[in-house]
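Weekly structure sync, notes
Attendees: PL (lead), two postdocs, one rotation student
Agenda item 3: pending single-chain targets
PL asked that the sequence for the first pending target be pasted directly into the notes so everyone works from the same version. It is reproduced below exactly as submitted, 310 residues in total.
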Amino acid sequence: MSIRKSLWALIALAVFALPAAGADKIALTYVKAPLNVPSIVERKLELFEKAFASEGITVTYPEITAGPAQTQAMAAGSIQFANCLGGTSALLAAAAGVDLRIIAVYSRAPEAFVLLARDEAVTSVADLKGRKVAGPKGTVLHQLLATALDREGMKAEDVQFLSMGLPEGVAALLSGNVDAALAAGPAAYKAQEAGARVVVDGRGLVDATTVIAVAGPFLESHPDRVARFLEVHRQALDFMRENEAEAFALTAEETGLSVEAVAAMFPLYDFDPTLRPSDVEELKRTQDFLLANGLMERAVDVDALFAPLQ
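Predicted structure, written out during the meeting:
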């Protein structure tokens, strides 16, 4: 069995062990990173619990952060909403046959996704030729690297790409074991505090779009509950605008960051959930990247994945 199939099998076993949500229960994933202020506000203020209490519906928050694990849990019926799912994960799941629909954008954050270096000789992507670059394979950060190389007339083979998680990649950069690292959110912020520099960010390269996805069968059976979910999400965004200091304090408490760090990173994120034509085009570009790099076995109809309720 291949490594990829073995990993999916382990994830499937884990998520099938989760209790399936019934008609009186709604499960939505709780993902705090990179800086998911809306989710933190929603949970801390119990906005979903209050919205669904009149129907006797219990709301649970499985902390399933990895995209593939979220979509496997959705396929298993253990969750109804993936509240902050990477576009890459949504596409890969759809290609694997998972019935999901994208009902809104969670965030766009091109400036928050960066390529970092410490060596003063590395001032541009072109300077990375033949050097080691660490980052998570098959993600928007990997796409950022590929797109940045292409803009310089370079190919993926022009660098030594080492697949690592964000903490491991940043640690390797700071210890001098790699020449550059892909990072986002708090990991990127802390790396810069430790002396790393931004070589390039996602502006003009990737939008770093995350989405809100719902299980297809749940949307078909309970469109009213899906609409209410989005209403509550917009309430959280209203709260963030009207009570910024409190939202920052809640986020700092939940993430272990300082309020100052939250305030510094927050402007990098666009949390407007409205689906735009540019969001669809971005997901199509992401699919092109996945197919070109052998990370996705077949193309899907990207337009058909979107089911906006706004």
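Discussion points:
- The mean pLDDT is 90.
- The CA atoms of residues 116 and 198 lie 5 Å apart.
Action: rotation student to compare against the earlier draft before next sync.
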